[in-house]
Design goal:
The chain is an alpha+beta fold. The protein has helices at residues 4-22, 122-125; strands spanning 127-132, 138-148, 151-157, 169-173, 176-180, 186-192, 197-202, 208-212. It has a domain at 122-212: Lipocalin. An eight-stranded antiparallel barrel has the order 1-2-3-4-5-6-7-8.
């Protein structure tokens, strides 16, 4: 203990003399330098100026690789598209004589509908008509416009049927032509069967008749 005290006093005296010496005329005060100086950060490595090679492997031969469209500057026309565009396929026309299974099915065409004949008129009936008798023979019937009492005059020529030979008048009742004999008896009735056709039968014997122009 007695030895440490003089050593402590000696160290204190050296420190006081160093401070007093730094304050003497002609000398500037210099602070004590630190032993630990902060290290400066290492410089950054610049990026390579050239193109960087890709480490990806090239696509296999025949692979379909989609490429991005080229960039177009403002005001410049867009470049034409490349590649092959499949044209539209026209429908095939069936070849005559080909396999029916390969033919194109078409909708059936409906047959034309015959228009109903117009109603006969008295003026349209005037003239000569051909009368076909039940035995297949043909004769002529003439319907005139000459009035005969309440009827119109009529006559036949070349008919084999005795009843038809007596016809002397006729009239139109709706769409039915009625033939009369002298005294007002009905000889035959014929209804419209077409535009210029009438069919019927004699009143007494019922023999079929056909009258046409």
């Amino acid at each position: 203990m007695l030895v440490l005290l003089p050593l402590g006093g000696l160290l204190a005296g050296c420190e006081a003399s160093s401070r007093i010496g730094s304050l003497l005329p002609g000398e500037t005060y210099r602070p004590a330098q630190r032993n630990e100086i902060a290290a400066a950060p290492p410089p950054l490595t610049p990026a390579p100026a050239g193109e960087v090679e890709s480490s990806a492997l090239p696509p296999p031969p025949g692979a379909n690789v989609a490429t991005a469209p080229p960039s177009v500057a403002p005001g410049e026309p867009f470049p034409p598209a490349t590649g092959t565009i499949n044209p539209p396929v026209a429908p095939q026309t069936p070849v005559p004589g080909a396999n029916p299974a390969n033919r194109v099915a078409t909708a059936p065409v409906a047959p034309p509908v015959n228009a109903a004949p117009s109603a006969p008129t008295r003026t349209g009936l005037i003239g000569n008509w051909s009368m076909r008798e039940s035995n297949g023979a043909n004769c002529r019937v003439t319907l005139s416009s000459a009035p005969k009492l309440d009827l119109y005059g009529a006559g036949t020529s070349g008919c084999q049927n005795k009843e038809l030979q007596r016809v002397n008048a006729w009239e139109l009742a709706g769409s039915e032509v009625i033939l009369y004999e002298p005294g007002g008896g009905v000889v035959a009735r014929l209804r419209q069967a077409g535009q210029q056709n009438f069919s019927g039968a004699t009143a007494k014997s019922g023999a079929p008749l056909t009258m046409s122009k």
